[in-house]
């Protein structure tokens, strides 16, 4: 995925920072254990958040400490593998693989890096596909739908966003509790919609220059790689609506010790990341990026 789903660090207690970091490092280790060292490069905050949402109820577990090749000074605390971390790892590999294959079909040059990454993930993808065949099928089908809409230069925001949102919603299908499964389906669907539209805004200038499909360009008939005031206002309303629906779904389930972290994502973090993207200050590749601020009402 893309790395947009982050908590508002300014709102987290020290213990919550340690919990979030423990899940992030735990997911990194599970990726390495299940799929090899190359798979650890697809680690991001989005699937860390997914693991938190899927965490077994009442089973936080003890954090362990071990050395880390990426942080050679001192030991890093992490949660050992469990069903949530394994599911997040498997599905992140599948989604990364199909996004790489999709990128190879895009027009233009500069595909060597995608070919190299696909080759590095090929064995990992085959293992993940065997473990999560339903998620693999849905991901493949929905990205094919998205590709078709791109070829048609679809002017709708909802139709391509729906195709991507359905992929994230499918991540909840293996949750055993039917009520929690329904809650997560709704929350993840609208999170997927939000991620797709934020990513479109983040890629707007590049897509306009290259002539690649971007739903914002088609929907608002943009004449440059920037949103007009009216287009920006319309997009903000749409993004905010998705966040409100995530919040409504979240309120239907007790997430226990993870509630405060989830709240900082839904009630502030997403607003602040969206604002940073629209202002051109967000650095998706910088895992040290920190979001701070107090006003969640305005992007």
Q: Secondary-structure map with pairings?
A:
Elements: H1 14-35, H2 45-54, E1 64-68, E2 71-78, H3 83-105, H4 112-131, H5 133-151, H6 158-169, H7 178-202, H8 204-210, H9 215-220, H10 229-250, H11 259-279
Antiparallel strand pairs: 1-2
Tell me what the CATH architecture is.
Orthogonal Bundle
Shape, principal axes of CA atoms: globular
Rg, Å, rounded: 19 Å
Quantity of strands, as a count: 2
Number of domains: 1
- Please state the structural category: mainly alpha
SSE pattern? HHEEHHHHHHHHH
Keyword list:
Farnesyl Diphosphate Synthase; 11 helices; two-stranded antiparallel sheet; mainly alpha; 299 residues
Task: Give your account of this protein's structure.
This protein is mainly α and 299 residues long. The chain is globular. Mean pLDDT is 89; it is low at 286-299. The chain is built from eleven helices and two strands. The protein is 63% helix and 4% strand. It has one domain: Farnesyl Diphosphate Synthase (Orthogonal Bundle), CATH 1.10.600.
In short:
By secondary structure, this protein is mainly α. The chain is built from 11 helices and 2 strands; from the N terminus they run ααββααααααααα. α1 (14-35) crosses α2.
């Amino acid at each position: 995925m893309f790395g947009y789903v982050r908590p508002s660090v300014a709102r987290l207690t020290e213990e919550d920072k340690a919990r979030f970091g423990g899940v992030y490092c735990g997911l990194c280790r599970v990726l390495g254990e299940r799929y090899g060292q190359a798979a650890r490069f697809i680690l991001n905050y989005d699937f860390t958040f997914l693991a938190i949402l899927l965490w077994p109820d009442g089973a936080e577990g003890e954090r362990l400490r071990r050395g880390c090749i990426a942080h050679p000074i001192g030991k890093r605390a992490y949660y050992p593998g469990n069903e949530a971390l394994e599911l997040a790892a498997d599905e992140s590999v599948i989604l990364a693989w199909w996004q790489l294959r999709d990128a190879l079909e895009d027009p233009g040059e500069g595909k060597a890096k995608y070919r190299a990454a696909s080759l590095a993930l090929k064995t990992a993808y085959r293992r993940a596909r065997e473990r999560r065949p339903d998620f693999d099928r849905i991901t493949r089908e929905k990205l094919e739908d998205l590709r078709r809409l791109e070829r048609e230069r679809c002017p709708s925001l909802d139709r391509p966003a729906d195709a991507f949102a359905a992929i994230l919603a499918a991540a909840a299908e293996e949750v055993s509790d039917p009520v929690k499964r329904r809650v997560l389906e709704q929350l993840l669907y609208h999170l997927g919609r939000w991620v797709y539209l934020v990513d479109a805004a983040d890629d707007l200038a590049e897509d306009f220059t290259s002539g690649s499909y971007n739903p914002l360009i088609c929907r608002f008939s943009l004449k440059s790689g920037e949103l007009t005031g009216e287009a920006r206002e319309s997009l903000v309303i749409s993004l905010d609506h998705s966040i409100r629906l995530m919040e409504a779904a979240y309120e239907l389930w007790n997430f226990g010790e993870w509630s405060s972290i989830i709240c900082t994502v839904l009630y502030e973090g997403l607003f602040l990341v969206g604002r940073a993207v629209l202002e051109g200050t967000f650095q998706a590749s910088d895992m040290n990026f920190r979001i701070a601020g107090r006003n969640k009402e305005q992007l």
